[in-house]
Amino acid sequence: MPITCDWHIPHIPAGHRAQEDDHDTKATPQTDVMVAEPELAKPPMYAVVMYNDNYTPMEFVVYVLQSEFRHDMDTAVQIMLNIHNSGKGTAGIYPKDIAETKAKKVNSLAHREGYPLLTQIEPHQGE
């Protein structure tokens, strides 16, 4: 009588089954493994820094601080005055990819409007 089997179940000849069963009877030591919780670190933060120039109007800087960085009017004016008086000021602090995107967007907007406003990112040394 020919041996028939289902196509998706492999046929193991009878002689090979006994050898495989012998391997199953050997005791294999089991080791307990302690699984540690993954360590999740906060991403490094970057400051989006705006630099003062003598050509970009203060109103434009305030507009950018409000529209791109979501500062209220009072905070935007304070940051703008800090940029004006100190030569540079922090517009916001974000993870690197977001900071880069915001800096590029502000530089592009300023360029389109004809202003030399420069915005770059720097590693943030805060908490």
TrEMBL record:
A Gene Ontology molecular function term of the record: peptidase activity
Keywords of the record: Hydrolase, Protease
TM stretches of this protein: none
Pfam families named among the record's database cross-references: ClpS
One of the GO BP terms on file: proteolysis
Lineage: superkingdom: Bacteria
Annotated InterPro entries: ClpS, ClpS_core, Ribosomal_bL12_C/ClpS-like
Residue ranges of every copy of the Adaptor protein ClpS core domain listed in the record: 42-118
Oligomeric form and interacting partners: Binds to the N-terminal domain of the chaperone ClpA.
Described purpose of this protein according to its UniProt entry: Involved in the modulation of the specificity of the ClpAP-mediated ATP-dependent protein degradation.
HAMAP family recorded: ClpS
Family (UniProt): Belongs to the ClpS family.
Protein name: ATP-dependent Clp protease adapter protein ClpS
Protein species of origin: Psychrobacter aestuarii
Name of the gene this protein is made from: clpS
